[in-house]
Amino acid sequence: MERIKAILYKEFLQMRRDRLTIGLVFMLPLIQLLLFGYAVQTEVKHIPTVVFDQSVSEESRSMLNSFVASGYFDVHYSVNSYQEVNDMIDSGKAKVGIVFPPEYEQEVKRGDSASVQVLVDASDNMVANQAMATASSIGLIKSQEVIANKMHMDMSRLPYDIRVRAWYNPDGITAYYMVPGILGIIVTMSMVMMTSMALVREREKGTLEQLIVTPVKSYELMIGKIIPYIFLGYIQITVALLVGVLVFGVPIRGSLLELYLLTLFFITASLGLGIMVSNLAKTQMQAFQMSFFLMLPSIMLSGFLFPRDAMPKIIYYISYVIPLTYYLDIIRGIVLKGIGFSYLVGQVVSLLVFSILFLTISILKFQKKIA
After folding, report:
1. How far does Cα 208 stand from its chain's mean position?
2. 118 CB contacts (<8 Å, ≥6 apart)?
3. 8 Å CB contact between 143 and 159
4. DSSP H helical segments within the chain, as ranges?
5. 21, 107, 281, 371: least surrounded by Cβ within 10 Å?
6. Distances (CA, A) of 247 to 56, 239, 278, 305
7. Which of 86, 102, 22, 104 is nearest to 50 (CA)?
8. Using the 8-state DSSP alphabet, how is residue 266 labeled?
9. Which residues pair with 309 in a beta bridge?
10. Largest Cα span, the chain
């Protein structure tokens, strides 16, 4: 027992000195429980919506107020053409487009079936299903109100005809939505996990000191560590795309060349994050724990599993500091929507900023260690 007590004392003493690991053990579950408990919502409300009202009448405003009052549609944009509606949905600024035809007011007053077109971005299945079901329900409720007030109306024809059209994934095929997202998750996991171990492994093996005494500059070391993984990332993406297309039948509607070019920014951002973790961690176990801590928010908050529009505002804004959030817009936009670089400039710039920021922090941190 005395020997066991001595070992226990030694382990607890060593554990107390390793404050980073202890902090991760206690704080990781607490932070993630609080974060994901608030963030994970399956009921999607406040869907960003664009409106093209060609009627500009009291009747169209009344119907639009019904959409807004439901709490599911937030009208962020009012435009003057179908093309602007298309652009808003293609760019991801709006998930739903509501279009009132010029004759809407006359149809309502004549008692005809007044049509309203609702365009839904179905590249996000959960948002699309909620939007389509709610829009149809609003039309049915409004029709029942009119029928209740005018008993002489023709019951075979509803006063309001809500015509819902799903774009990009009209059949709601889950694989079309999930496979591009899984590709992003795979790249994030492998790039961050592997590079987070890079410098720590060198330090534990004792080879880092040999690198320090060489003429290699810190930024050259960082770049040298990253470039091999860029090629590995492209191999993973190629294999995943082939599986997605050949096995799951996922269509690639946009330019494959653009997808590969824009993916470079995501790979470098992920590698930069991994290298930064590798600079901060002292052991491979710490690097693994820190990588795991970063991976869960990427999966849960980026929009991969749960729509960001359903998250509380503060969590929604936190998701902007996750590189995968921007890459999901890129890959789903190119693969499912067929859009190009002109619609994805903001996402590309954000990933470029992440890459520069992470690499700069890593270089400065590494220089500090050398000194």
Report:
1. 37
2. 96, 97, 98, 99, 131, 132, 135, 162, 163, 164, 165
3. yes
4. 2-17, 19-39, 58-69, 82-91, 104-110, 125-149, 174-196, 198-205, 208-212, 218-246, 256-280, 284-301, 313-318, 323-332, 345-370
5. 371
6. 48, 12, 36, 21
7. 86
8. H
9. none
10. 95
pLDDT digits (tens, 9 = 90+) for 108-131: 888 778 889 999 998 888 888 889
Report pLDDT for 260: 95
Angle between helices 284-301 and 198-205 (to 10 degrees): 170
Domain ranges of the chain: 47-167, 173-370
CATH topology of domain 47-167: abc type-2 transporter like fold (3.40.1710)
What is the C-alpha to C-alpha distance for residues 135 and 218, in angstroms, rounded to an integer? 57
Separation of alpha carbons 157 and 115, rounded Å: 12
Q: Which two tokens stand for residue 34?
A: 């609080």
pTM value surpassing 0.85: no
